[in-house]
């Protein structure tokens, strides 16, 4: 299916303030990698750079072997990078269906059969298609945000804190959905997550950021939980 992401020596700055320093990160095709770290260490900045929303100052971002650092965000989406940013990334004034159609049309896809595929993954959304997205609950809006990314049939799905602001019962639903999606499609996934247990249950690989650097990385089967929690301690 493809979808390998390779970040090498990536530096990103806001104005004159550099926030990412020589970041190296490999997300192999078909893997699920969880990126963790305390607040403000650069996790969302890295995801925004991967999605094309922030320019690099140095370094390389390759997707399936192709350099994409100079490629605009909407073109990266058409290449197969689906991005679900932090928060409820939906158009609140549009209905749930209109939210899906806007993304489908922007991606240049005319085949609407993908809508049925996505609604099979999120059956609760099928009963809410006529509801304005701004009136959805937090969990419903999060499901819609993920569904919007999936209608482009991405090879790589990037999720920034999918459990943020979600009630505990819905967190388990989101976890089950991500796990099932990964298992059934083999889609490559990169997600930022604060809940360690959630992340380690889902991911086969992890990376930890601190101060704009990747300070630890490996497979989740070999993780040292004591050292791991020390890295994430506030």
Count of extended strands: 10
Report low-confidence residues grouped into runs of 5 or more: none
- By CATH, the topology is Rossmann fold
**CATH level-two architecture:** 3-Layer(aba) Sandwich
The rough form would be described as globular
What integer is the average pLDDT? 90
Q: Helicity range of the residues?
A: 25-40%
Q: What's the CATH H-level superfamily name?
A: P-loop containing nucleotide triphosphate hydrolases
Strand percentage, roughly?
25-35%
Structure description:
The chain has 234 residues and is of the alpha/beta class. It has a single domain, classed as Rossmann fold (3-Layer(aba) Sandwich). The chain contains 8 helices and 10 strands. The strands form 2 sheets. Strands 6-7-8-3-9-10 form a 6-stranded mixed β-sheet, with helices on both faces. A 4-stranded antiparallel β-sheet has the order 2-1-4-5, with helices on one face. Strand 7, helix 6 (168-185) and strand 8 (188-192) form a beta-alpha-beta unit. Helix 3 packs parallel to helix 5. It is globular and about 45 Å long. The N and C termini lie far apart (38 Å). The mean pLDDT is 90.
């Amino acid at each position: 299916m493809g979808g390998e992401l390779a970040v090498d020596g990536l530096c990103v700055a806001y104005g004159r303030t550099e926030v990412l320093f020589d970041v190296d990160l490999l997300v192999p095709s078909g893997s699920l990698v969880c990126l963790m770290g305390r607040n403000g260490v650069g996790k969302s900045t890295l995801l925004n750079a991967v999605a094309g929303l922030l320019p690099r100052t140095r370094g390389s971002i390759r997707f399936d072997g192709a350099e994409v650092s100079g490629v605009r965000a909407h073109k990266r989406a058409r290449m197969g990078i689906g991005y679900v940013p932090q928060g409820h990334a939906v158009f609140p004034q549009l209905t749930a269906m209109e939210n899906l159609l806007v993304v489908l049309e922007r991606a240049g896809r005319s085949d609407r059969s993908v809508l049925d595929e996505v609604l099979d993954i999120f059956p609760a959304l099928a009963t809410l298609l006529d509801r304005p997205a701004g009136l959805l609950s937090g969990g419903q809006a999060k499901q819609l945000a993920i569904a919007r990314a999936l209608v482009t049939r991405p090879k790589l799905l990037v999720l920034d804190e999918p459990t943020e602001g979600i009630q505990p019962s819905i967190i388990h639903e989101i976890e089950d959905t991500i796990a099932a999606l990964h298992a059934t499609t083999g889609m490559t996934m990169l997600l930022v997550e604060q809940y360690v247990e959630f992340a380690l249950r889902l991911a086969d690989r992890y990376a930890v950021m601190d101060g704009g650097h990747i300070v630890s990385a490996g497979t989740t089967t070999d993780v040292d939980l004591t050292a791991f929690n020390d890295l994430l301690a506030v």
